Amino acid sequence: MLDFQAITRKYYAEWLDCDEQDFDGGVRYVSSPKRDVKLPGYSNRFILSIFRLNNAVIVSYSSKIQEQINKMKTDFSTIESFNSQLSDYLNRSFLAKIDTGFKFIFEQHSPILINKLVTLEKKNFSLFLNFRLALGQREWDGMRKDFEELSGRGYCIAKIIDGKAVSMTDPPTMPFMADIVQEMGISTLPYYRNKGYAKEVVSACISKIVSDGKCPLWSCAADNRASEQLAYSVGFKKFCDVYSVVLER
Q1: For the structural domain made of 117-233, what CATH number should be given?
Q2: What's the rounded Cα separation, in Å, for the pair 48 and 167?
Q3: Where are the domains of the chain?
Q4: Which of 116, 186, 202, 233 maximizes the CB count within 10 A of its CB?
């Protein structure tokens, strides 16, 4: 059995460019070159990434914002200071998008009864395309190539109703430790939500990830209550709150 907690801590330490022991307590500011590049699997750069745990805070930042960070260290030096006012502070200090969200740790999985699921392969591009169009997205250049890469990892799973995909996982490319971790994304067509389909699809995806000897990961936006509740229902617990300053493309 994999130690999911240890693997998750190691992955996020890699993301933040900190030591795993930093999660155990205190406040740590880390200047990291990882905040200067667009990581694999992401379309934007995270020039500032703050993880707030119950008893620890890690601030990973680009050296290009050192001046703002120097000011920030004055107002945010204790765990207690990283409170609800942090979002407002970031909005005032940075001319960039501010994302807030949660990261989770997988504990244990209780498989549920599932049916009419398909693990998408290269030949199933039309299912993927029609699903994306039904979500209101447009076909993009290189979409077929992107799908072939996605489906080739074996974690793109869909719930099929009346011959069409209505809920689908969309696991991203992992920037670190891809041999042992895999995050999941999940989307469901509006009419088919609140029917348990997303839980079925995610449960199947978790089973595949774990059977491959990997640790499942989960993230969601702070205002995505449905995703947060889904995470809890399939065996995750919250690891931390996340605040990010994002440079889009």
Answers
A1: 3.40.630.30
A2: 32
A3: 4-104+242-248, 117-233
A4: 202
